[in-house]
Write a structure and sequence with these properties.
The protein has 17 helices and eleven strands. It is an alpha+beta fold. The chain folds into two domains: 154 residues, 2-Layer Sandwich (BirA Bifunctional Protein, domain 2); 216 residues, no CATH class. The protein has a five-stranded antiparallel β-sheet with strand order 1-3-5-4-2, with helices on both faces. It has a three-stranded antiparallel β-sheet with strand order 6-7-8. Pfam families: Relaxase.
């Protein structure tokens, strides 16, 4: 079991996030400790926050008074509501919050059922409850609760090693947000790409695409990205997911910085020349498209070919897993451009040369054949310690930040600032 302890200055926001799950029938209130209860068992955020107001009013000097904890058993653990309640009580008692008012929410919106606990970190007299060695203490309690309730040990290296890290998204499996996050959050840590088109070519291996959302001058905010799940034909099969759900590194600004950094890194390397030699070597035997892709894949290179409705090739991208770099064909040279391969395989179908417009969003519905990641991705499974160290999280919803929660809290902050400006005006 993994516990995540979050602290902030907005207990209302933490309650609102969880109550929204209840209102949307994606969660429920399991247990309340020293909370003001209602006769009908129905609650609003305003009603729930009243239980914490005396503690917050008495607060003397603590800045981050809100306490928001999530307890996440392994998805394979079958935990009943009664066991969740007992675990929550045991955890809060051992952490020193057993006498505090707290409320336990169960979330059921994803395959991994888990609980959230909202409380405050100051006692009735307004004194801060000690949080020294909090992480170490929390981990120790989790190991004890695993033994007591016969749960899977989250520190078990073998179980972590067997988790699939980079796997194509499968809409039939469910929990799309976690599937998308496991790829989106980690891809930039390993791969160099210089444009949005190259990034999308890499994402397409995992049945994912992203689109740029541009803001006009009159609109408030920055340019953003939306992510979608794809089927094996490259067609969108999900609602859009905002980049903020996957953390700041998935956003437009962070990717732009990654493009620039990749450009400088690849400029100083010999990868460009080596890849050209490899592709040239394969082309010497005049293979058809299928043979060409298969031969390169055996060498650790995926080839993404994009066609328009008439079948004309308008883009080609090479993903070299050995050097972990992505290259639009024209970046390697004119002989590797979309026009060159259109002449080579399609007999020069007429059309405009769109290879120069590679920076536009790739229309994945025009990828005729979905490529799969090369087996070199297996290097991620070889050493569980390095995987955890490098990623910080294999399963983002379990071992890392809950970015849906952070996104909700950020929206609450923006709303308050907007209201404050109106009030001052």
């Amino acid at each position: 079991m993994i516990a995540k302890v979050g602290r902030g200055n907005n207990v209302y926001g933490a309650l609102a996030y969880n109550q929204l799950k209840v209102d949307d029938e994606k969660g429920q209130i399991l247990f309340m400790n020293k909370m003001i209860e209602t006769k009908d068992g129905k609650y609003t955020v305003a009603q729930l926050v009243k239980s914490f107001e005396p503690y917050l009013a008495a607060n003397k000097n603590a800045e981050k008074t809100a306490l928001h904890i999530s307890l996440n058993p392994d998805p394979k653990d079958n935990v009943s509501d009664e066991k969740f309640i007992q675990m929550a009580q045991d955890y809060m008692n051992e952490m020193g919050y057993g006498n505090q008012p707290f409320i336990v929410f169960k979330h059921t919106d994803i395959n991994r059922t888990h609980i959230h606990i909202v409380s405050v970190g100051v006692d009735e007299e307004g004194k801060k409850i000690s949080d020294k060695f909090e992480k170490r203490k929390s981990m120790k309690i989790c190991r004890e609760l695993e033994k007591k309730y016969n749960l899977i040990n989250a520190s078990n290296k073998e179980s972590v090693q067997n988790e699939k890290v980079f796997s194509p998204v499968n809409i039939r499996v469910g929990d799309l947000k976690s599937q998308l996050a496991s790829v989106i959050r980690n891809i930039p840590n390993y791969y160099q790409f210089q444009t949005l088109g190259e990034y999308n070519a890499l994402l397409s291996l995992f049945n994912i695409t992203c689109e740029k959302v541009e803001k006009s001058e009159k609109e408030v905010g920055k340019n953003g990205l939306l992510y979608f799940a794809l089927n094996d034909k490259g067609e969108k099969v999900s609602q859009p997911f905002k980049a903020s759900l996957f953390g700041k590194n998935a956003g437009f600004e962070a990717l732009n910085n990654h493009f620039l950094k990749s450009r400088e890194t690849l400029k100083l390397s010999s990868i460009h020349d080596k890849l050209k030699e490899t592709v040239t070597l394969v082309m010497k035997n005049k293979p058809n498209e299928s043979e060409f892709k298969n031969k390169l894949q055996q060498m650790g290179i995926n080839t993404i070919v994009r066609r328009n409705a008439s079948g004309r090739i308008y883009g080609i991208t090479f993903i070299d897993h050995q050097s972990t770099s992505v290259w639009n064909g024209s970046r390697l040279g004119k002989e590797f451009s979309a026009n060159a391969f259109n002449q080579y395989w399609n007999g020069g179908l007429d059309g405009n040369n769109e290879d120069e417009k590679e920076c536009k969003n790739i229309s994945n519905s025009e990828i005729l054949q979905s490529e799969k990641p090369h087996e070199l991705f297996n290097f991620l499974h070889q050493d569980s310690n390095s995987v955890i160290e490098g990623f910080g999280s294999i399963m983002p919803e379990i071992l890392g930040e809950d970015y849906e929660e952070l996104d909700f809290e950020n929206r609450m902050k923006r709303k308050r600032k907007k209201n404050n400006r109106r009030f001052r005006g």
